Amino acid sequence: MSNSKAQISGWIVFWLSNFSMISISLISLLHPKYKTSIPYDMSSTILAIIILILVIIIQVVVGISIKKLHKNIYWSIVLLAIGLISNWLYLIPAIWGIILNKQKADEA
Q1: How many CA atoms lie within 13 A of 98 on its CB side?
Q2: Which residue spans traverse the membrane (predicted)?
Q3: Looking at beta carbons, which pairs linking 24-29 to residues 24 or more positions away fall under 8 Å?
Q4: Separation between Cα atoms, residue 83 and residue 103, nearest integer Å
Q5: What's the pLDDT tens digit per position in 48-69?
Q6: Using CA of residue 87, residue 57, residue 97, residue 101, what is the dihedral sign?
Q7: Is residue 107 a contact partner of residue 28, using CB atoms and an 8 Å limit?
Q8: Which long-range contacts (CB under 8 A, 24 or more apart) does 68-71 make?
Q9: At what angle do helices 5-30 and 91-107 cross, to 10 degrees?
């Protein structure tokens, strides 16, 4: 199945989110006077690494959810949950995917 508009909107949010996270990280590294994410002691470093790992895991799950948005309603629900806890823009493709999956189930 080719990408639907729901998936395309999900990919747009996904890449904008990744671009903004990478940009903020680079700006923090290039301009250390703006200490937004630069750890300054061991506990901050450990916390930063844990947060980075969690963000990577969430983004991997989001990518899988968007790719499999039309397999079944499960992936739309996963994307909806992630949208509620992390990036509200993921709610758009999630709700759209739920509607499309419901329509597909009604047709069958």
Answers
A1: 11
A2: 12-30, 42-66, 73-99
A3: none
A4: 22
A5: 788 888 988 999 999 999 999 8
A6: negative
A7: no
A8: 69/4, 69/6, 69/7, 69/10, 69/93, 69/97, 69/100, 70/1, 70/4, 70/7, 70/97, 70/100, 70/101, 70/104
A9: 160
Confidence of residue 33 (pLDDT cuts 50, 70, 90): low
Q: How far apart are CA 96 and CA 6, in angstroms?
A: 6
Instruction: Name the nearest CA neighbour of 82 among 71, 70, 97.
Output: 97
In the structure encoding, which two tokens stand for residue 103, read together? 């329509």
Q: Tokens 């901050």 label which residue?
A: 44
Contact yes or no for 96/73 (Cβ under 8 A): no
pLDDT tens, residue by residue, 96-108 = 999 988 888 888 7
